[in-house]
Amino acid sequence: MDQSAESPNTSSSGKSTTTLNGGQSVSKRLQTELMQLMMSTTPGISAFPTDGNLQHWTGTINGPEGTPYESLTFKLSLEFPSNYPMAPPTVLFTTPMFHPNVDMSGRICLDILKDKWSAVYNVQSILLSLQSLLGEPNNKSPLNGQAAELWDKDPKEYKRLLMLRHKEAED
Amino acid sequence: MAAFLSQHPIPYPQGRKRIFESVFPPSASSTLPTPLATPTSSFVAPPSQPSQPSQPPQTPTPSHGYNTRHHPNVTPSPAPISFAPSPAAIFARESRAWHLATTYLSFPADPFPGSLGEYVQTHQDPTRDVAEAIRYLTIHHAEDPTPETSLLEWYTCEVRRHFLAHVRPEISIPTEYSDGARLLEEILGRLTTAQSIYLFRLRTYIVPEKKKGRARRNLDSWDESDDSKVQAFVRSLNSIISYSLPDPAWNKLVYEKFLELCGTAVGLPGGDDGDDDDDTVLNDGDGAGNDSMSGDEDVYQGVRLSQQSFATETDIDGDIVVDDDGVAIGNPKDMDGIDEFDVYRQRAEEKADEKRKKRKEEKPREKARKKVLEIWAAMEKLGVGGGGRRGERVINTLLTTYINAHFAGVWETPSKVGDDLNRWVEHVLGQLVLDVLFSSKSVNSAEGWAARLKKLSPRESFRASRQSLDSRKKGAMEVDAGAGVGEDDIKRRKEDLESWKRIAIGRLGRLRVGELFDIVVEWPDSLGGVEDLKSYIISPQTRLHLTTTFTSALSTRLLHPAAATSDILRAYISLIRAFTVLDPRGVLLDRVSRGIRRYLRERDDTVRVIVRGIMSESLPDGSEDAEDLSELAHELGKGIPATQQGGGLEELDYDDLSWAPDPVDAGPEFRRSKGLDVVGSLISLWESKEVWTKEVAAVLSSRLLGSGEWLFEKEIRTIELLKLRFGETTMQGCDVMLKDIADSKRSDTHIRAQEGLRMEGSPEIHTKILSRLFWPTMKEDGFQVPLEIRELQERYERGFETLKKKRKLTWLQTMGTVEVELELEDRVVQVPDAATWQAAVIHQFGEERCDKWTISQLADNLEMEESLVKKAVQFWQCRDVLKEIGNGVYTVIEDLEELEASTPPKTGVAAAEEEEEVTDEKKRERMVVEQFVVGMLTNGGAMPLERISMMLGLVPGGFSWGQEELREFLSRMKSEGKVEYKGGSWRIPKA
């Protein structure tokens, strides 16, 4: 899957050409990723384009076992920019979330979605990273201070607040 | 003198009355003055001429013989009575005369005899004084007719009364009748007789001829007579006749009969006679017309003199449908019943001799034509012609029937049908109508001409068949207004012919539209039919009619599960071709092909069949797909029509001087003329190109791998042609495949030379090295190849790895062929193209010292799937190499004579293989779809079937399942508990 090599990163050429080729290569890449994801069937993670729009996906993560998130499912929205995979997708939790690195509107603080992004990452790796983030939060740079504080001190209270906040997505 | 004579008393008035009453019962009008009421009056009719001595009134003239010349010649007195008798005397005289006359002229209360002749024979001539009384009355009141005293008026009423009371019951039409022809003729005969008798008496007694010396009195020359009284009488009589005819039944009868006869006359039944007969009719048309006209005259003029009634005449001619040889001429279906037919035949035989003398060599069509004219003339005379409507209907049906009988299924090209039809309308139908129009004796009279013209005007008939009664009346009025004489008429006749032709073309078009499906299927042998249609589809209505009819024909006859995909595709290809000829702009094609395209998209083997058709040159000979649609390969070779290459920028082509806007009836999604591009039309069935490339790659790979050749020129050509359609990048995979094969040849030689693989005594090994990513996925169920092969493979691998750094070979052990030579005790079995796994299995039997194996043992030993082993064993069983010796144990047949004992199943290996291949592919596809459905429902929540189907478009390689298939698949998933169905939507069950 080295489609990335083909994707044009020549911003010097005409703008229209860039978007055109970029658009084509994005959907091609995303289609390949989708196929890969579908075929690999990693347990606990899943994603699929929303409404047939390849650049907007909905993801689902099952909370990892042995964490407060066990047996909960979380929905995410993944928005792919037109220069993907050169730029990371915008990922948000759509399910209300209580987590040190997730703010109240679902925004996520994760390095690989920001400055550590690389074109070798894909939807599957993003979802796996997020799944592990649930179990191992980075409490040094919390978006949700309360959660960061309670994570170590009071797991019970943490779980209570989490369950208070959590709401299963309606079909 | 005269005064004296007039004073003569009439003797025995009472006695006379009794005598009269005994013979003629008092009539309806007997309330008029009678001798009883005026007993004292005396009456003597004035003498006709003083010089002619009147006979004594006491002597009645019992003239039993019928003398036609005498009565009319009783000339009326030239002078009115110039005396001045007393008013009372005049009144009395008149009353007496009236009484005598009316008593005599009243009709008896019986029906009339069969013919005028019989009537004349039996009826009694008036006595002298009756005659005089009539003469007296007519002379007296000729000038001032008042209803009370006019004898003519009274006679009219009397005739009416008699007709209604006695004739009308005889002309009723039973609800069911078997022989319409005879019935019609009988009715017409009765009516004619009645009319003749009424007229005869009118002529003889009441309105005697004024002219003397006519050699032959012509009874039916009423319309030539300038006597307005007679005409008025006839009009009144005719109106009562037509009123009396039972309406729907009569119309139906006449219509049927006319149709039958006209049909015969214009050559309807036999479809095989065609041009020759038309020409004959055309040539002797004039002569025949004249013949029949003179024949008519004979018939009707002869009514009186030759004692030959219409009815008897028809009896003789009634068997018109029987030839002299007793061969049926008419279409038996047109006959009302076989029984009648037999009767006819019998009678025909009885009279055969007579007829042979009597008849000239008439053709049945001529006879029918004559018959039509006879009946028409009789009806005309009776005033029951029925006006234009009857004629219209007959012409209308004739046209349709003729066209259906002659042109159905006649699609030769170039089409002569249109010309034939025009000629037929002009010469045959037109001639018939012309005969009807002109055969009447009223031809000289402009009025009669116009009236007849009106009756058969196709313009009226055209309106009648399409518009309301009101507009029909209006049409008739127009015709009336336009009715003229001379040139106008001729011009109008031409116009009529033209409009008949137009109607005929329309009918032909309808016929062709009905046949269109067959025309399309028969293409290109049915080009003529399409040519005929071209002249039909000139208005939006007819085009709409064509598309709707054809679409429904398609869906009932083709688009159903019983039709094979290849048949549907072939029909579609013919359809494209036929409609391109029919309508080069492509609007009709666009409209009719929507249904069939939608249907084709739902079939899951459409792509496969099309691609195999396109690549039929690459398929092995004898494969069924190769024959099916091999024309597609040819089509592909034609390249893309120039018109299409403009692509989407076509709209902007300002240099296109032949540009025209889309036709008005083009649909919203109408795409401009695609030209005749069959392959293009098929390819555009699916938007996605992957659907096609996948199938093309599959066919290509089986071809490349299945052949020992190294040169694939045909394939290269096909792929290059497909590149024109799909673009370079889409076909890249196929390019790589072709290149792999070409490269393999070189590297194979190289590696073999390098590794020294060409050794005596060891098997040769050749490889085809495939770039895995670009080839269709292949089964990789490896197995343990025999040891010596394994060694060779390892050496080969080494060679490859030195040749291509950092690349690795993965062996597809099941692919490939082996040349096997088995040396058995009594024979050598050679199989040049056994599969590797088949070879491995048989190798097992030879290698170890054990020659008895069960399937599972073999599978374990070879690490091969049991199903594959089973197939291999079957393969060798079919070649009489292996046999089962019980309990699933197989052994080699060393000696063929052993074979007698066992009966090897030689069936179904190929079929099993094919099935396996399909299910493998299908299995993979199902797995993908299942994953996608699960992913979709997990993330997107519950979805209805339509949405799932739409979203599955994301599946790489395209998604070609129909909704039914998907529904079935989802149901299966549901039964496995993977999804659930709730409230119209599918979803993932909650844990």
From TrEMBL, chain A:
The active site is at residue 109. Residues 1-25 are annotated as: Disordered. Residues 25-171 form the UBC core domain. InterPro entries: Ub_conjugating_enzyme (IPR050113), UBC (IPR000608), UBQ-conjugating_AS (IPR023313), UBQ-conjugating_enzyme/RWD (IPR016135). Its EC number is 2.3.2.23. Coiled coil: none annotated. Keywords: ATP-binding, Nucleotide-binding, Transferase, Ubl conjugation pathway. One of its GO terms (molecular function) is ubiquitin conjugating enzyme activity. It comes from the Eukaryota. CDD domains: UBCc_UBE2C. PANTHER family: UBIQUITIN-CONJUGATING ENZYME E2 (PTHR24067). Belongs to the ubiquitin-conjugating enzyme family. This is Ubiquitin-conjugating enzyme E2 2.
TrEMBL record, chain B:
Residues 47-60 have a biased composition (Pro residues). Belongs to the cullin family. GO terms for cellular component: anaphase-promoting complex. GO terms for molecular function: ubiquitin protein ligase binding. Coiled coil: none annotated. Keywords: Cell cycle, Cell division, Mitosis, Ubl conjugation pathway. Residues 272-281 have a biased composition (Acidic residues). The keyword Ion transport does not apply. One of its GO terms (biological process) is metaphase/anaphase transition of mitotic cell cycle. SMART domains: APC2, CULLIN. Residues 682-877 form the Cullin family profile domain. Residues 25-42 have a biased composition (Low complexity). It comes from the Eukaryota. The keyword Metal-binding does not apply. InterPro entries: ANAPC2, ANAPC2_C, Cullin-like_AB, Cullin_homology, Cullin_homology_sf, TPR_ANAPC2, WH-like_DNA-bd_sf, WH_DNA-bd_sf. This is Anaphase-promoting complex subunit 2. Residues 25-79, 269-297, 903-922 are annotated as: Disordered.
